[in-house]
Amino acid sequence: MDKKEYFEKILDRTAEELVKELFPNGIATQEKIGIRKLLESVVELIMNQERNFFLENDDDNKANGYYERSLNTGSFKLNINVPRDRKGRFRPQILPDPYKRVNEDYINLLMSLVSIRKASAYVVL
């Protein structure tokens, strides 16, 4: 196992433990809605930044709006707007393979983001 895989496993286990600690009785409906909206926003921001970097290196191309897509993340179904480019060359790396709606690595990333966000909220308080 290389260093990257080792770090990812530690991050995954930490995220799982944080979720169990923060939501010992499960997640209420309002919390699910809030987490879903947060995850949708985070994923869309990441994809937009990725497109911006992509277009900086593709001088004869421009942004061309978005298309809607849904992703299943285990507990949540995310409805996201995926950025596109005029030449059809851009595909966000954060998305699972084409025609897949769920990816284990993607679920782990999202849960890590939720855990980090919740943990930072406790530190601020």
From TrEMBL:
Keywords: DNA recombination, DNA-binding, Transposition. Pfam families: Transposase_mut. InterPro entries: Transposase_mutator (IPR001207). It comes from the Bacteria. One of its GO terms (molecular function) is transposase activity. Belongs to the transposase mutator family. Required for the transposition of the insertion element. This is Transposase, mutator type.
